[in-house]
Amino acid sequence: MIVLRQSTNVLSWQPTNGLQKAALVKDPKESKMFRHKHFIPIVLAIATLVVFPAAIGARKAQRLPAQPDFDREQFMLMNLNRGQDSTGFYLSGSHAKTKVMVKDLDKALRQLEQVDRTYAKSRGKPDDRFLDSTYQRIKQAKQTAEQLEVQLKDAYDDLKVSIQQTLVLEN
Prior knowledge:
Number of strands: 3
Distance between the termini: 86 Å
Largest sheet: 3 strands, antiparallel
Number of helices: 4
Structural class: alpha+beta
Number of domains: 2
Helix content: 55-70%
Strand order of the largest sheet: 1-2-3
Shape: elongated
Radius of gyration: 39 Å
């Protein structure tokens, strides 16, 4: 019989009818030693994990300044600028859409201008503008969109400042 030792188990080889079989047998002495040998360090580790974070958390809680109590109306005021479906959310979303609108109108203007030039050249009248009225309307729409973009950005910035000033002046 060949015996190989592994930590707390004993691996033994026993021949049976010419075949080799391995059996894993626990050594009772080693398992008791393991319990006694590692019990105290495990208990100390668990106690350290439980006691020290609680003490650190208590110190941090003492250092934090007292936060003012807000009533429902103050929370409503603060939430105008935060979260989905708020005024700030809609202003910010509209501002982003107007940026895209300005870019798209600019692309449309350039495309219209190129097609108009090419068409005029093909007809033998390179100085004529056949789509000039459409060009002027798109140009005016682009200018309006640029103004709207600036107004939305200013409105969003004004909202943030107004909320902060209102809450600061109240406290």
